[in-house]
Amino acid sequence: MKIEYGLWRAKRSLSPYLWFKNRMFIVQWEAEGRTWTLLNEPTEAELSVGTPYFKSTVEKFGEFLSTKVVSKFHGTVEGYLEQAGLKPEDIDFITYDHLHTQDIRRWVGTTKPQADLSPREPIKPYFPNAKLIVQKKEWDILPYLHPLQTIWYQPEQFEDIPEDRIIFTEGDVLLGPGAMLMFTPGHTHGNHSLVVNTDTGIWVSSENGIAAECYAPEESGVRALRSYAKKTGFDVVINGNTLEETARQYNSMVQEKLVADPSKENPKFPQVFPSSEWSPKFPLIGPKPSFRHKKVAIGTIKRPKKDGGQT
Ligand SMILES: [Zn+2]
């Protein structure tokens, strides 16, 4: 991603790019005598390449550089679930902090055949029981995207999603004990953040910011962030790849920062885990973050039994 997006006006580097990692979270909670399972950010990388921004990257760098050098494929949603011991039918809900780059047709199926993936019949859902939880505002804006947002969405891929596979929400939603979606508009019109209360305290995830240190830039080991915070007095540095509602995004980041508990590893930074995380992986691309939460795994994943009990 471009550095002026991720670090907005705090950029101070010769490199025009930053390196990112997309994160998926598996969240489980107990309620009504059973385990509920949510997948947060199950991005299907192969289908997200239809996003205009990625298409233009491929045009600029060519197929080989785009897929082998400036991006790296780590694994599939299906593969990670298998590793975690979960089956597709175990997933009750999927959600995204917003619908940028997403194409969920294979996850929840379609009402009509799809020329590119299933030309003869509608797509059968990979997750037979999962429903998409999405803010009504995020869904309703799809046919009417602001020009500043169009490079990030694939609105046509949502036209044939069955409505009975969607749960529309408005504002904050308590999913179950210790799990909620907090309405945090700004990066997009209908953005929400995952908030979970765990054995290590409260964690928040969204794409409003790209690193924990963007939520405490005055403490950052990255000089550009620290001096920018000092110069402006800003509490947070937004992920500025959409500028439609910048002030609201700033407010949402402050809200996320206040809700999250301090990191146990370094209490200067909040337990905000960005869904698109600034990563030091690729040495040739851009500056590196000074702090990361790395892998966050709390508790053990359970496989819900069909009768509602636990394995
Ligand atoms: Zn986004």
Q: What does this molecule look like?
A:
The chain has 311 residues and is an alpha/beta fold. The chain has one domain (3-278): 4-Layer Sandwich (Metallo-beta-lactamase, Chain A). It has 8 helices and 13 strands. The chain has helices at residues 3-6, 45-48, 52-69, 77-83, 105-108, 136-140, 223-232, 246-259; strands at residues 20-22, 25-31, 34-40, 93-95, 113-114, 118-122, 131-135, 166-169, 173-176, 179-183, 192-198, 201-205, 276-278. It has a 5-stranded mixed beta sheet with strand order 2-3-4-7-8. Strands 9-10-11-12 form a 4-stranded antiparallel beta sheet, covered by helices on one side. Strands 1-13 form a two-stranded antiparallel ribbon. The longest helix is centred in the first third of the chain and has 18 residues, at 52-69. The radius of gyration is 19 Å and the shape is globular. The model has no long low-confidence stretch (mean pLDDT 88). Zinc ion (ZN) binds next to loops. Zinc ion binds at residues 98, 100, 152, 187, 207.
